[in-house]
Amino acid sequence: MPMNNLPKKPIIIIQIIFVLLYCTKVWAQVDEIRLIRQRIVSQLKSNPIKAEEVSRLMNNIQSDGSFKYINYEDLSRTASFPQRKHTAGLVTLAQAHETEGNPYYLNKVLLNKIILATNFWVENDFVGDNWHNNQITTPGNLVNLMLLIGEKLPAELVNRAQPIISRANMNASGARPSGDRIVIAGILAKNLLFIEDKATFEEIIKIIANEIKFSTGERGMQHDYSFHHRIDRVNNTTSYGYGKYANAFGEWCDYVAGTKYAFDKDKINQLVDYYLDGVYKQLVFGVYEDISVKNRSIANRSTFQAKGTLEIERLLRSTSYRSKELKEIIKLRKGEVTPTLSFAKYFWHSEHFVLQRPNYYTTVRMFSSRNKNMEKPYNGPGITTHHRADGTNYLMLKGDEYHNIWPIYDWQKISGTTILQKPELHDGESIQKAGIMDFVGAVENGQNGTVGFDFTSPHDGTKAKKAWFFFDQSYVCLGTGIKGDKGFPVATTVDQVLIRSPISTLETGKKAVLLPDGNHKFRQLKWLYHGNIGYLFPVESSVHVTNKVETGRWSDITDQKNISNKIVSREVLKIWFDHGVNPQNGSYIYMVFPGISESELKSLYVSGTPYSILSNTKELQAVKNKEEQEVQAVFYQSGNLLLENKLNLKMDSAGIILLQLLHGKVHSMSISDPTRKLKEITFTLDGLYKVLNKNISAIKNKQSNTTFFTLKMPEKEYAGKSITFQLK
């Protein structure tokens, strides 16, 4: 039979099958798009809206669609864009209108109010002086409004809102690689769902999916799991890196889970690593805000409360990776368990050290020639933060020890810092400065750590060699080479903290007493006890203490408008060393014992601390813990250190070390290069050793009974990281 006479029915059937398969695929994609949108809308409706709030908002909408309580005139950066309350209010009203069970569910009067107020915004199109309001705040609120209720708004009004929402796009100035890029991409993705642009939605989801990665430039997630929002390399981990970058990725990870748009598991797992090893290790017990990481936002009043669990619950729906640790954080945040985790971690890209024990959390914040000292006071807040990275050492047993202290704070007596006591701070515009010194860093073995800071103030030239030695349950603070030449005193502050219990002190030749309120100067203070923390002063030196009511205003520490100028009064404890005017070689030594009772501190003073100060010079600062058999040292240059009888360490370069001793020999060692310039570090130890590490060479000299070590140091993104190894 000729080919052209074959029956055509089979061909038609095959064509129908292909059409059906294609349509099935398209329908599946449509269903997935609808599913993702439904998930977003469900999340928007998940927080119950109180009827009283809806009534308040409705009653404040005037005949032209504006809200009575909003000042629409001031669009300046320091006004904080009060207009945002308008679009945020629209979202709240839409949530109430669309949520079953709400008294205003599908209320026609409410819908008309929403239309009226939306029209007012679209007609006026308020554009603030801060790009963030125009590219994130307003588009974010309006796209949520559209997803909730857009189909019930007049089509013409929806169309007029689109250009405003579309300011969130990948060519926007704020869409640079940082915490804002992923947020803008998310707003754009939501709008593409609303207008049903599936092709572009798929492109934007790919952009979001690829945002979780280590930064090879200057912005984004660093290789130590800290986060830099800007090219100044200031630590922004728990602000932009948490509230925006990480949470935005986690949000979309949850929205697209189980669909063709689902993110790669490796990316999700890297996000888990970032949360657990970066974000949560810079929160007090993984629960409360660590004020050490805060920048200009420290000038804003805050509420002391545990962080939420939503971002963790989202992760657990997407991966089982490190789920036990994630679930532990949930329990901690819900108050179901108490902290158990002990760790030491140095974020070498951000010059930030953290140590946690189940009963306390402490940090050291610094800066170096590799980064700037502090965030600029963008838009007004934080105009007093000049010295907050000058070796700041906050100590928290609960997390609220410094909560909202800032309007009454003495910004030239910051806990841990050595600061020139000027008549007043420089202006806010001169806060951010480039670091001067290379030698800034720390060594840690995961549990204990040593911090070294060759400090020169870029504001006034004050100099100091500062070191912190963190052992298991307490730490030692050393300072030397303190120098100033500006005609003002220089002070090192032990702590400035809210008073939460009576204060006890002991002076040489006197009995321990409760300290009355006021100003005190101790010539031979031996110890001070406050709030389950003991401060011990082993060397006789002049120590100043004030414990009294301090006053101030929130408006004193910001250039933002509409900030309360009401007097704030709180009782504050300040402890500091006065090194005098124009000191040339000032020094200090003090020890900190967190989480102990006063009787334990008294016993410790009588029996003696476990610490020996091996050196506190401009060349070498070193401490030995005799009970833990651990030596920690900061070598600012090459030199020798006698670890114990007949056990000498000779360093051929600068470096920071942590040594564990056992039976008169070194059992394990951690070392780092705080200058980030050395390809290798060499040193010699008394005794014959071998080491099983391909990056470490150990050459024995039986004649001299010594071992010469050569260590290859981490380079590029890992320069500054610690190396830990065992010796045999």
What does this structure look like?
With 728 residues, this protein is α+β, with helices and mostly antiparallel strands. It has 3 domains: 29-211, Glycosyltransferase (Alpha/alpha barrel); 380-609, Distorted Sandwich (Beta-galactosidase, Chain A, domain 5), CATH 2.70.98; 611-727, Chondroitinase Ac, Chain A, domain 3, CATH 2.60.220.10. 27% of the residues lie in helices and 27% in strands. The protein has 13 helices and 33 strands. A 9-stranded antiparallel β-sheet has the order 10-11-12-13-22-19-18-15-16. It has a 6-stranded antiparallel β-sheet with strand order 23-24-25-28-29-33, with no helix packed on it. Strands 9-14-21-20-17 form a 5-stranded antiparallel β-sheet, with no helix packed on it. A hairpin with a 5-residue loop joins strand 1 (220-221) and strand 2. It is globular. Mean pLDDT is 95; it is low at 19-27.
Shape: globular
> What integer value in Å does the Rg equal?
30 Å
Strand content: 25-35%
Put simply, the count of helices is 13
User: Uncertain runs with pLDDT below 50, 5 residues or more?
Assistant: 19-27
Total number of distinct structural domains = 3
The major pleated sheet works out as: 9 strands, antiparallel
The number of strands is 33
CATH fold type of the largest domain:
Beta-galactosidase, Chain A, domain 5
What's the pLDDT, averaged over the residues? 95
